[in-house]
Amino acid sequence: MRLSTFQQGACAALLAGLLAAAPQAGAQTAQQGAATAAATPTTAPTTAGPYVMPATQVWDMPSDNGEVYRIFVSAPEKGEPPKGGYPVLYVLDGNAYFGSFAQARWVQDYLPVGKAIIVGVGYPGDKAWDVRRMADYTAQLREPLAPEVRPFAKYKSGARAPFLDFLTGKLRSEIAQRYSVNLERQSLFGHSFGGLFALYALYERPQAFESIVAASPSMEWNGQSILDEERTFRDKVQAGKVGATSRLMVVVGDRDADGDPESARMLAERLEALSGWGLRVRLQRYPNEVHASVPAQAANDTLRFAFTLR
Questions:
Q1: What is the CA radius of gyration of the chain?
Q2: How far apart, in whole angstroms, are the C-alpha atoms of residue 307 and residue 5?
Q3: Which of 85, 87, 90, 86 is closest to 119 using CA atoms?
Q4: What's the pLDDT score for residue 146?
Q5: What is the C-alpha separation between 180 and 127, in angstroms, rounded?
Q6: Of 3, 6, 65, 98, which one has the greatest count of Cβ atoms within 10 A?
Q7: What is the structure's pLDDT at 30?
Q8: Is the per-residue pLDDT at 3 higher than 70?
Q9: How far is CA 243 from the centre of its chain?
Q10: CA–CA distance, 234 with 239 (Å, rounded to integer)
Q11: Among 179-188, 253-262, 297-306, which stretch is predicted with the lowest mean pLDDT?
């Protein structure tokens, strides 16, 4: 079909108009796309603050002799305390180990082992371990120095007695003022040097804690001087001079090169012989754990040992 002159002119005008409008339409589309993109909220990640374990508090506290300790506490935030108050577990080397115990308690808050208080006892700063632990957890080095302790002679040692006073005195009173606690159900966990201190606490003050967990105790330290204290303790128990004592759980990893598993087994056997005088002893071994991994593995077993009523 042939178009009239008028129709041909109209089509030419329409085509010219479309061609002229095309760039403008493209510009409008680009502008609309830019506006849409601008209106869409960004999906880029934002930086949040550092993670803080829920249901915890931290403060620094001086002992009577001026030593400052960092105190970490995990406690239930809801519900009523059990009759008599919450049982308490004191965890030595709190900077390193408090997190494992606090997390284990927090996620079991609805169970009996979660209705308790964890108190980590550490030192100001962000290091897992502080050299001050050697003084707080050990006896004065024997003279002459054994070869294995000579490199450590430059550090302070022998402050375990005032540290035990702090644990059972000023710190225990502070925790009792802040929380509803059962003073008859106080327990202690220590690992390595801390495990050595835990044994000292048992031998020195058998009634100070209801339960004690000595994990990978460094009994070889200082010429095995802890064995002399063990013998003195056993003699007192057998002579009827001790009475009620803490319950003891000895914990060790079978791949522990720093805390001899066989020594831990023999310790448990020797002390188990005192069961006729009331001492209750348990040995907990972890086949695949090394020295550093024992505390995290032991967290739940320790909570059950310390907080489960018998």
A1: 33
A2: 103
A3: 90
A4: 82
A5: 31
A6: 98
A7: 44
A8: no
A9: 32
A10: 8
A11: 253-262
Residue position matching structure tokens 């006073």: 165
pTM (two decimals): 0.85
Polymer length in residues for the chain: 310
Which amino acid belongs to residue 277? W
Alpha carbon distances (Å) from 212 to 54, 89, 117, 138, 194 = 26, 9, 15, 17, 11
Burial 20-48 (b: 16+ CB within 10 A, else e): eeeeeeeeeeeeeeeeeeeeeeeeeeeee
Q: Integer distance in angstroms from the first to the last C-alpha of the chain?
A: 106
